[in-house]
Amino acid sequence: MATIAPYSGTKCRLKLIVNDREVSVAAPRVQRLSRVLREQLGLTGTKVGCDAGDCGACTVLLDGEPVCSCLVAVGQVENHSIITVEGLKSRPPLFDRLQESFLRHGAAQCGACTPGMLVSATALLEKSNSPSEADVMDALGGVLCRCTGYRKIINAVLDARSRTEKSKCPAAGTSVGQRLIRIDGKRKVEGTEIYGADEVPVDALTLLAIRCPYDRAKFRFGDLQAFVESHPGVEAVLTSKDVPGEDCYGVIPRFADQPVFAREENGARYRGEAIAAIVGQAEAIESLDPATFPVAWEELPALRTIDEALAPDAPLIHPHRTCNVLTSGRVVRGNVEKGLAAADVVVEGEFETGFVEHVCIEPEAGFARRVGDEIEIQACTQSPYMDRADIAKLLGISAEAVRIIPTAVGGGFGTKLDLSVQPFLALAAWRLPRPVRMVYSRIESIMCTTKRHPAHMRCRAGAGKDGKLLALDFAADFNTGAYSSWGPTVAARVPVHASGPYSVPNYRALTRAIHTNIVPAGAFRGFGVPQMAIAQEQLYDDLAIRLGIDPLEFRILNALDDETPTVTGQIMGEGVGIRACFEALRPRWKEARAEAKEFNANSAGPVRRGVGVAGMWYGCGNTSLPNPSTVRIGLKRDGRIVLHQGAVDIGQGSNTIVTQICADALCAPIDCFDLISGDTSITPDCGKTSASRQTFVTGKAAHMAGRELRRAILRLAGLRGDCNDKDRDEDAVIDFGSNILEIRQGGTQRRISLRDRPLDKHGYVLTAEQTFDPPTSKLDEDGQGIPYALYGFGAHMAEIAVDIELGTVRVLKIVAAHDVGRAINPTLIEGQIEGGVAQGLGMALMEEFFPGKGENLHDYLIPSAGDIPPVESILIEDPSSIGPFGAKGIGEQAVIPTAPAILNAIHHATGVGMRRIPATPDRIREAILANASTNPTGAARG
Amino acid sequence: MKICFCRRFQLLLRGHSLYFRPHTLNEAVNVLANSGGQILAGGTDFFPSLAEQPVTGTVVDISALRELKGVIHEPNYIRIGGLTTWTEIVKTQLPRCFDGLKAAAREIGGIQIQNRGTVAGNLCNASPAADSVPPLLALDAEVELVSRAGMRRVPLADFIVGNRKTQRQPGEILSQIFVPRTVENAASTFLKLGARRYLVISIVMVAVVLEKDSMGHVRDARVSVGSCSVAARRIAELERALIGAPVAVGLGSFATADHLKSLSPIDDVRATAAYRRGAALRLVQRALDVCAGSS
Fold first, then answer.
1. Cβ distance A460 to A575 under 8 Å?
2. CA atoms of A199 and A408, how far apart (whole Å)
3. What pLDDT, on the 0 to 100 scale, is given for residue A12?
4. Which domain holds residue A292?
5. Domain of A407: which CATH number?
6. Helix, strand, coil share (%) of chain B residues, nearest 5
């Protein structure tokens, strides 16, 4: 009888061949390969996005074939060859060209999926000399990306073999408008970028949160001390009793309501809320079964929906918030009832959208350590200074005693504006003598980080026979979950925007954010405006159809212009490019509508084509609230310029955009710049990366700082340096890049030796620091005033095919026209547009999170590489003089019009309007059947 | 005190879970008989099923059993080793009636999953949405189960008994899949309906194998539907009704809602039960038309 000896479950010595080198590791044989590569071999280029084979971020080559390293036991690959992204550089020239192609095409945004994409693409390119687009999609189909919309990645792979000249640094003063490769791009394509989980102090402990498994529950702890003592390697259990400061945080201080841990006396208010944290040696924590934690739960009835929370007898989730209403918003102009009464055509609709999850490929992660009486937190975040303020409050220490070191962010989209790992880490590291790390699992990330607010919207709109919009009556309730997060922002922003980018003389928009026992809904690219646009833009299509007017022409007829007041009474006077956006779509619109008509007339099959359009406006920056950015630049003795750029780059490109702006303001070549990130100990506050504000607000501060440094240099040279702040019209030329500055103005030439210059308190020869806060005004009780200093505008057109028998939709093409004021970097702007389109497509067709169900990436679906059509971006430049070089934001603007354009196209194709979003195949099919039964001659068949 | 001791003991066990990596089937079944434990093969279901909990108990890694890899053509059967990966299925030259299975193989996860996931693993995991089950059912596949006590062969249709439930006993390894060489030149297809292009769990899937006689009429028809009942199933009523029908486009119209009454779809996050019923019928009709068109 054959016998075989077992391997112990404890660590074994194993020999692997990693990146063509033989290495020896000590690990249990059943350990995931991804874990061994990252934690033992330090090959953190391999990312872990889900630990379930759903995202492909951890793809490596195993004997030359791509596999998910999270699904391979290290004992299975002893003596096999493993190639990670770090090892691909040994495959020149193919990989060099692929990397260059990724950079050139802007195929890496946040960069978290990039290693998986590069490894998968390399496997394809090594087998195939000239792969087709379909081959590339098949090769990349196993890797999810949330930023790019895939098209730039696909094109980068298709283009990988073409030789191109290395791009040269543009001359001084000519960076703006250039397709420069992103400044932080090289690290992303090498796999060397450091994200939240990629750096750990050697002696760090690991923290695991214990979370409530019910929507609402009472709980009682058992003997926590005995638990610690009976678990070797466990150092401490933390609960709400361990919070030394004020245990109440929140992104908007006035509404702060969230404790670090739920308290026994209040119970837990949502599934996923932390009640305690266990801190200990990594191995002890990893082998721990959370079910053994001593706590007794009592599940309580929960409020899950807006209707349940608003019921007269509903219990209050927060006793001081009556009727479970967190806050409300209101904008009123003209007389909406009179407007509707005067209208020749009135349409109405009720719309509902679901929870949407951000799905950053990088789950939340970081570590903290105590340094004397100060705490340092290195984590992924979109808002270092807000983190600092809340951590100081929780620990009961001054803000100056908190240092936030933001890592690269592997996708944010709004969810990393809120605290995640930071409070747990701060408490633990404050109390324990060692650093503490925490990495959210995908399950944890989906279960307990913020979501897009579900919306229940009711609206009526009226227009005259002439096609002029007369009135819009809009009301929306948003399910804001158990804590405030960004609920007030959604409630405030939506009523300002619900008219869309059109002139609506009679207007009423009322919103409420309603508490429920669900994970908090927070910020997600657009703060409620994407949901709102789904209702408003579909309703306007109904109006156009009832009036017999082409939907695009209806929008052009009603588009805002420089002199027409908005629904808050703001007259912009300049930079209202919405009409130009719609007009840019017109040629393709006419063609595509004709093509669809012809296709449908000649097709006997189940496929129907449709073409839809939607418009968008979006205010950049906080709504009627201050949101300053401060930028500091310094001139070093070696002639290099240091830019303290506190706008966290979450993949959108602010590191590059802000530097381009600053370089041109200073009139220096961009390669003279060194970038310092948003570390709160060395970089001033540039506010949060949200509200499409960084290009505008931080960009403007960088522009001002650049001009200021230029003046200071000219003054130092004894030249005319205090002239008016006109762009580039000074005749002085400064040569940077050595320890001697050469300055020429007119016939005068000066040389300044920097080597012997004294240094100021920042350590620079010269420092310039400037603050910009966009001018806005408070809104009055009718919401009248100036909520934003400028708006971005845009319009998307979707061409789709619907299989009316199955309710499935294929998006064939998107044309996206955006007024960006000035395109600082067209490649990065296209990246924002294409990524926004992908998220809009997901929101329209497939993405819905059902709390408590499917906390993983195979039940919660985001678009894959095969779902995104070609996107044609049209950049309109109608400058706003207040923006840097006229620029406006694009981050959120890009996502808003896609979903309503697709939904309008579905209506065009099938005759049915989708009221419940996402329009999944079953919902579309159901709507088609319902329409057919009430309207037997309609488009639906089968 | 007692509870505390138990917890400690449990933790000790966790820290000392056993891992076997046998190199022959004989070794493997002996290990299983002696130690019990979970089987690890391609890992594509093993690791996700942990749901981020630590590995507990004994693990028997059978991925080194070379004898279970690859496809062999025997006189009466095509024998697929249980450890054959989906990529290998796609790359192996197989008779026409396997086109549906190959199409299903290309739809299982992404390339990363197809490179590791095994045929036996997909069958033993027995998800109602397992992509390989409808085409293998349509091929009349049988599975071979080996234990120390011996081996037995079970029709696939009997092997999977419910949602993630099979007839496999704890000491058994699914070693081979046998496909009888009866309809090798039959047309076959696989249609999958999901809410996105790649990496998607099926809402409905359909496999058809269709053989015509010399007169151009249906000699043999096998139709199976997945994701519409606890386990994918053949639609015998429809298969019988198709016998003798002329093989031409329009064959699909033979299928009616009545034929699919044996399905019992559910509402879940992917779709409603009512939708699944309707979509299953349309996919069956289309799959029949595809096969008829290529016959």
1. no
2. 11
3. 86
4. 205-302+358-448
5. 3.30.365.10
6. 35, 25, 40
Tell me the average confidence (pLDDT) per consecutive run of 10 residues in chain B, 295 residues long: 30 61 97 95 96 88 97 98 98 98 97 98 97 98 98 98 97 98 96 95 97 97 98 98 96 98 96 98 98 91
Asked if residue A238 lies in contact with residue A276, where contact means CB atoms within 8 angstroms, the answer is yes
pTM: 0.97
- How much is the pLDDT for A727? 42
Predicted pLDDT of residue B114: 98
What pLDDT score was predicted for residue A941?
36
Q: Which residues pair with B40 in a beta bridge?
A: B61
Please give, one letter per residue, the 3-state secondary structure of A536-553: HHHHHHHHHHHHCCCHHH
One domain, residues B196 and B234? yes
Residues 6+ apart with CB under 8 A from A698: A629, A631, A645, A646, A647, A654, A658, A686, A687, A772
Burial of A422 (0-12, 13-18, 19+ CB in 10 A): buried
Coil/strand/helix, residue B211: strand
Cis peptide before A918 (omega within 30 of 0): yes
Strand ranges of the sheet holding A673-676, from the earlier edge strand across to the other edge: A673-676, A641-644, A629-635, A766-772
pLDDT of residue A940: 38
Which pLDDT value is given to residue B2?
30
Do A460 and A405 reside in the same domain of the chain? no
The rounded distance, in Å, linking the Cα atoms of B158 and B152 is 13
Inform me whether the C-beta atom of residue A866 falls under 8 Å from chain B C-beta atoms: yes
Element (H, E) at A711: helix A699-716
Distance from CA of B202 to the nearest CA of A (A): 11
Residues of chain A with pLDDT below 70 are: 1-4, 8-9, 721-730, 936-942
**Structurally, how many domains does chain B consist of?**
3
Residue after which a domain boundary falls, among B61, B77, B94? B61
Give yes or no for a contact between A406 and A199, defined as CB atoms under 8 angstroms apart: no
- Asked if B216 and B253 sit in the same domain, the reply is yes
- Measured in angstroms, the CA of A867 and the nearest CA of chain B are apart by 6
∠ CA(A701), CA(A706), CA(A707), 5° rounding?
A: 100
Q: What is the extent of the structural domain holding B56?
A: 2-61
Q: Which of B145, B180, B215 is the last residue of a domain?
A: B180
The pLDDT value recorded for residue A7 is 72
Which residues in chain A are closer than 8 Å to B121, comparing Cβ atoms? none
Q: What are the φ and ψ backbone dihedral angles of B18, each rounded to 5 degrees?
A: -100, 145
A921 and A841 in a common domain: yes
10 Å CB burial of residue A220 (0-12, 13-18, 19+) is: exposed
Amino acid at site A641: I
Q: Do B27 and A3 touch (CB under 8 A)?
A: yes
- 8 Å CB contact between A367 and A437: yes
A positions 279-318 inside 8 Å of B (CB)? 286-289, 292
What is the CATH number for B271?
3.30.390.50
Residue A762 tokens read as 């920042």
- How many CA atoms lie less than 13 Å away from A481 in the CB half-sphere? 31
| A120 with B48: Cβ contact below 8 A | no
Contact A875, A818 (CB under 8 A): yes
> pLDDT digits over A158-174, tens only?
999 987 777 789 999 99
